[in-house]
Amino acid sequence: MAPDLPDSLERLSHSDLIGAVRDLVGEFTRLRAEHEKVLETLAKLRIEHQAVKDELARYKKLPPRPPQKPSGMEKATDLPDVAAGGTKGERSTRRRGSNLEKLKIDRTVVVKADAPAGSRFKGFEDIVVQDVAFHPLVTRYRRERWLTPDGQTVIAPLDPGVVGGYGPHLHRLILMLHFQGQMTCERILALLNGAGVVISKRQVVRLLVAKLETFRAEDEEVLTAGLSSSRFVTVDDTGARHQGKPGFTTHIGSDRFAVFRTGPSKSRLAFLRNLLGGAARYVINKAALVYMRDNNLPQAALDKLASCATRIFPSDQDWMQRLSELGLTELTITPDPVRVASEGALWGALQEEGRLGELVIVSDGAGLPGLDPGIRVGVHAQCWIHAERLVHKLIPANQIQHKAVEVARRMIWWFYGKLKEYKLAPSPERAEILRAQFKRIFDRAKTGYAALDSLLRRLLRLEDRLMRVLERPEIPLHTNASENAIRGFVIIRKISGGTVSEKGRQARDAMLGLDKTCKKLKIRFFDYLGARLGIPGLQIPRLATLVREAPS
Fold this sequence. Notes:
By secondary structure, the protein is an alpha/beta fold. The protein has helices spanning 14-59, 73-76, 168-180, 185-194, 201-209, 212-229, 268-275, 286-294, 299-306, 316-325, 337-353, 384-392, 399-424, 428-442, 450-461, 463-466, 480-496, 502-520, 525-532, 543-549, and strands at residues 145-147, 153-155, 232-242, 245-253, 258-263, 282-283, 312-313, 360-363, 379-382. Strands 5-4-3-8-9 form a 5-stranded mixed beta sheet, sandwiched between helices. Strands 1-2 form a two-stranded antiparallel sheet. Strands 6-7 form a two-stranded antiparallel ribbon. Helix 6 packs parallel to helix 20. The radius of gyration is 32 Å and the shape is globular.
């Protein structure tokens, strides 16, 4: 409420006049703060209103409004490409080489020219033409049958690539069209039937999951090899649907491998299971007890677990039975002792197997607020792009707040460029300078925008994760690689929807991971499938071996 003032200020004494002015200044400050809150609320309501309009447009089948543009920090801070002979902002002068050397000439045809009499032969002018012959090839196998002296029937075996009356070339084509070409089963069926192949949709679906265990086993080998041989992994997740229920698909990858895992949760417990290859193996060791203590497991429960005679539990049932015997399942406290103990035991199993070593896990830092800390485990680094995106998403309500956000973003962009330069030439001296600059940027006085001040303090508390690159300059500053990789899954999800059967879910995860891994290893996925399906003339080593041998 405004202070009560007399009709005439001349009647006030000097001290009363100063008090009245102070009251008015306080009232003005309060009103200005409320005004800024109203403007901020109005800006948010405008965004919500636009979201509702977009939803109505979707129901009316109108084109959607373009999404919010990215901040552009990564491209804006790119360093000059010295190897290409160009500078920042200029087009490279390096010319692309010919792709003909990648081709294998299958046949050579000499084309005669109708030259008039008296002409002189001047050699040949070559042109390389690529073509594809797509037609069904039907083979009748006449398998010998023999009756042995003891009355048993012996039938000559088929080629290992034949599955249910369809050969390995057709099998490979269907896998390529669905998992790499992102075609639905209906469109694959229409294509094959149009080309003269007699096949049904059910048979197409069966071929998509045929020999699934072979590909799943190699996918698990790739995960184990990738975790043990990579210096870092980037992680990202997206929504997924399986059997009509919502879930999550997590991508784990580096510069040499990629895997996808789909499950009902993206909790830390689920992530630790994924790192273990999906196996439920719990180990109580020193690493597990340290994890439990650091995550606030009650000392009484910690003592009970430390005194267990059995240290290894090979299944969920055995582990939960032991927790029940120790009374942990009956405790109703925060944090949940069952969750913390299970995470610690899984972490102990990871450390016992030596799966991670000195691996750095780079993620966007997202978790389940108030419930679960997400995938922040081990040596963890946080994505700078996602950190800057929080500033980019702020909704300033006045000119002062706009200016404060713009200054903060310019400083972050400048510092991000300095981190890129540091990665090229790391040194302890430059690391100390960057740490001091980080504190000056994020440990600032009030900017005039409370939401920005709160965000800067939050990012300051993440210094260890954001500045991990100073200790490990080989790690990336962002998770763009994982976001780009998981985009392929998102496209398939939009085209085909969710999975229904467990085999379908496993096949999608395994084949997408193997496809991305082949690209990183510069192997044609088409050749890889042919080698694994038994097509003669194609020999490709196990991908896990190539992942381990890939140059750093």
